Amino acid sequence: MTLGSSHQQSPEYIMDVYKLTSLVSEHDAKKAGAEVVKQTDNAPLSGLLYPILQTLDEEYLKVDAQFGGLDQRKLFTAAKDWLPRLGYKERAHLMNPMVPGISGGKMSSSDPDSKIDLLDPPEIVTKKIRKAVAAPKVVEGNGIIAFVEYVLMPAAALMKNREFRVERDRDGLEPLVYTSVAQLHDDYRNDVLTPQLLKPAVAKGLNDLLAPIQAAYQNSSEWQEIALKAYPPPAKKEKKVKDRGSKYPGQREKEIAHHPKKDSGE
After folding, report:
1. Among the ranges 127-131, 239-243, 257-261, which has the highest mean pLDDT value?
2. Residues 16 and 52 sit within 8 Å (Cβ to Cβ)
3. pLDDT: is 245 or 86 the higher one?
4. CA–CA distance from 233 to each of 88, 114, 237 (Å)?
5. Do the Cβ atoms of 198 and 181 come closer than 8 Å?
6. The dihedral of CA 99, 104, 105, 106: what is its sign?
7. Residue 31 banded pLDDT, cuts 50, 70, 90
């Protein structure tokens, strides 16, 4: 694990930030961050610096390649142009399609219900998939179908069995077996494959895929230690005792009851 502060506070890094700010225009900085930085009419300066900082991280982390989603493509294009201007080598960039979140919209690390974590236990995976947004007959933006297309079927292909099976026991019908995503899309659009049939199959497929990963995690104290350092549990909030002051209801009666003169009979 490498902390950004291990290089981002160095004089060399900061000087390179200054150099790139003199070489990169406002237009190009906005364009590079268009898909990952929030765009507003009065955006903070940090939004312009973000693409520059990510570009320099390639050099200071000494990477050969950077991996990201398709939403990073403008940043990657900028990095290929900007780093050579400072005399640094151009890096390779790998991209994969963006999988929609299962709660609707974009998958986000800050929204646990929009994604499936590698260490989510089976009951959590099943619950998330059951609650997931999956409009009938709608393929576009459907996070459940995306999991089949980009996770389950490619994983099955690596295991030499490229198929996705949907059981229909409760209806007394034969299972639906898919060997191509196009076939699955067609059945979903035509309501042959419904969300009620698809979700249990996806939950089972994900849990089967995650089981050996989670078993390896449970058997590795080193992995558990690294995971704890990378994702520390949130600090428990201390319960604050409310300061009621000296004028809250009932306080006056207590003061009179314990008044020295009253106690002495004066």
Report:
1. 127-131
2. no
3. 86
4. 38, 19, 12
5. no
6. negative
7. very high
Contact 107, 101 (CB under 8 A): yes
CA separation for the pair 50, 36 (Å, rounded): 9
Burial class (CB in 10 A: 0-12, 13-18, 19+), 118: exposed
Short-list 46, 58, 43, 52, CA closest to 14: 52
In angstroms, how far is CA 250 from the centroid of its own chain? Answer: 51
| Token code pair at residue 249 | 């209801």
Query: How do 164-166 and 176-178 pair as beta strands?
Result: antiparallel
Buried b or exposed e, range 48-76, using 16+ CB within 10 angstroms = bbbbbbbbbbbbbeeeeebebeeebebbb
Average pLDDT over residues 186-198: 97
Residue 202's CB is within 10 A of a number of other CB atoms, namely 27
**DSSP-assigned states of every residue in the chain:** ---THHHHTSHHHHHHHHHHHHHS-HHHHHHHTTTTS---TT--THHHHHHHHHHHHHHHTT-SEEEEEGGGHHHHHHHHHHHHHTTPPPPEEEEEPPPBPTTSSB--TT-GGGS--TT--HHHHHHHHHHS---TT--TT-HHHHHIIIIIHHHHHHTT---EEE--GGGT-PPEEESSHHHHHHHHHTTSS-HHHHHHHHHHHHHHHHHHHHHHHHT-HHHHHHHHHHSPPPPPPPPPPP--TT-STTHHHHHHHT-HHHHHT-
Gyration radius of the chain's alpha carbons: 28
The predicted pLDDT at position 12 comes to 96
C-alpha 229/C-alpha 215 separation (Å) is 20
Tokens representing 224? 């558990």
According to DSSP, the residues that pair with 95 across neighbouring strands are 68
